[in-house]
Amino acid sequence: MSYTIEIKPETFMVESLTQSFGQAHIPSPLRVSFQTENFIEDGKDRILVDISLEGLLKASRPDNGKILFQPSTFELAGPREKIFWNPDNLKVAIVTCGGLAPGLNNVVQNLVTFLSDRYRVKNIYGVPFGYQGFTHDPLTKRFAFGWRRLDSLSVQNIDFEGGSVLGTGRGHSNPISIVDALMLRDINILFTIGGDGTLAGANAIHEEIKRRKVPIALIGIPKTIDNDVLWVSKTFGFESAVGKAVEALRCAQTEARSAFHGIGLVKIMGRNSGALTATAAVAMNDIDFVLVPEVPIRLDGQNGLLNAIVRKVIDKGYITIAVAEGAGQDLFPPSEIEKDASGNVKLKDIGKFLQKVITDEFKSRNIETTLKYIDPSYMLRSQTTSADDSVFCAKLGQNAVHAAMAGKTGCMIGYAHERFTHVPLAAVALGKKHLDVNEPLWLSVLAATGQPFQWK
After folding, report:
1. pLDDT of residue 173
2. What are the protein's UniProt keywords (predicted)?
């Protein structure tokens, strides 16, 4: 992966409560409960952020006749030999925010079971309906929603369900009020599970905690089926969403193949990144057009999309189109920008737009066609996980617990080069990850579809 933002070694230095509140000196209970001696050593166990030759060369510079090598590196996630918190009197809160994704319950389940069974933590609470669950009256100290007491038994089999057993929600990210709530409930560790908006909110909460100089650890766990969070090669639920998207594409193709001049059009989630749409298309390997936010769409002209669609339908007899929800937003007339509760710009419906302009194009040419439009968006995010995603969720949850118990704070559990890492939330806020159109995934799309690199 190539990075367009400037990265420096200090960008990835993870904060720890040990820097202000004393060393981690308690022997890890994993020696007994997990029977392991495989502990990560801070400062020593790190991996490169950029493993490309170009990245290595950028990290090297001459210095007094020698080559000074200062690459940016991630701190590896995993258990530490000494932990910061005493499990006996520890209080932990877990919150799920933003939209749904396959695997939310799996992550919650693994957080709770690992805290309870391996670290012997007794006081674990689920915060309902995202950051809104911290809402309380500062005078009466009464909370708008009751928090849920969690243990290994209460989360048993929740991985069989889609959605979030805690409930989720957007917005309501008031760091001052949230830290007030954490202090009222004597919470020592907060796990936040969500996408870039949730993680940005978590970073603001972390900064408020630091401003007050209170010992509260905050660990983020990235959640987005768009796979657009920086420093994470794969997010939980992505693989499951790909499988469901492929099902929708197959249905659309069946409809198209069964009609004269049939067209199957499927809109797939992907606000800023076309990774989900592109991956599903490659998995099908028989999609004719793939439209993503990273590649501008030109409708008209000899080499435009509409003419290409007409030619393909006539030549092949039917076609299937996959379009990411964030594609082609510049095709709509300018209008007032609206945002949702998370601060995301509300997208125009590119699926219905294409349905109309494609149908109108065929009518204008007096060519018969049948177009079937499928929008499986909420089916993608509300399902349960695939087996591989379940394994991934388990590892995410376990590594988040390891980080928190060691006193790490203000960081997210990342995933790079097949290893789990600690990534400062400030580094996550540097931008969004996009589909790289020069990388193999998009080149595979072009090879499978035969569509041009750009619409000119």
Report:
1. 85
2. ATP-binding, Glycolysis, Kinase, Magnesium, Metal-binding, Nucleotide-binding, Transferase
